Amino acid sequence: MLLLAITAFLHLQAQKRNAEELVRKGITAARLGYKEEALAKFSEAIALDPTLPEAWYNRGVLYYESGNHPKALFDLDRAAQLNPRQANIFLQRGLVRHALDEDSLAIIDLEKAIRLDSTLREARLNLGLIYYEKQQYEKALPHFSFLIRKNKEDGQALYHRGLCLHFTGHFFEAIGDFSAALEQNPDEPDIFLSRGVSKAAAGLYYAAIEDFSRAIEMQPDYTEAYMNRGLARFNLYKFAEAEADYEQALQQQPQSSEALTGRGISRLAQGKKSEGCADLKKASDNGFAKATEYLLKYCKD
Q: Could you tell me the CA-to-CA distances from 90 to 125, 128, 265, 287 in Å, in that order?
């Protein structure tokens, strides 16, 4: 009986070693881009040793990356049961749950990942991003700030903290974060756009126009940059230039009610009543409330 027990134990140990080797081969295959081969290795490892959390975890990550979120969640659930102290498992399961629109559960997983490893950047970043997407800016801010304290050159955290600061009314602080983000990513038109929006909100219209223009230089079809530059120019009483910007925006998005409204009020400000009212009528017919308000106010005749 003792001999049989020893033999069984040695057999199980051999299976475990073989399963671990399969996981290593699967990780190598995944890194080289051979995802199907990697999935096969991880699945074979699971068949040999279903108690190996690394096999479930790595297969779950591959399923997530390939867009198969239900299978990814199943595998990561199993990995979490087998190894409840591994922060990366809860990070990845949080990402999967976010992809499945289960944000309340995603937040729980990401918070647990942070408790297990407070330095885990991806958990902090994604928790902040989820709160940002849910427009819970005050909850997002501490996570981006934590990352910036750890690395003042974290461009992604700087950019998103800037967005949160903007939406909570701290425009000058937001401008500072966007400027710092641009030092890390000087060719990113979205950051110029966002800094321009904060400058405009702070009343710095000329400086905002410079940023919108930089964004347009980098991305000539950037509708949002034309729209915002048009609004800044309108606020500076540069009505013809504002009209030209809204015209550019409409070339990109001909049915944009916001662009039609902007062009309409720019035309009205220049005395082009029939053209301006026609723009406002189109936007109003599309259900744009602001256009209806202007239409009733300025186009009664």
A: 14, 16, 52, 44
- Give this prediction's pTM: 0.89
- Please determine, for residue 183, whether its predicted confidence score (pLDDT) is greater than 90: yes
- What is the DSSP track for 148-206? HHH-TT-HHHHHHHHHHHHHTT-HHHHHHHHHHHHHH-TT-HHHHHHHHHHHHHTT-HH
How far is the C-alpha of 119 from the C-alpha of 122, rounded, in Å? 9
- If we measure between CA atoms, which residue out of 190, 184, 232 comes closest to residue 210? 232
Determine the Cα angle at 212 with ends 287 and 176, to 5°.
110
pLDDT, one tens digit per residue, over 153-178 is 999 999 999 999 999 999 999 999 99
Radius of gyration of the chain (CA): 27
pLDDT at 208: 98
Place of tokens 């190894």: 83
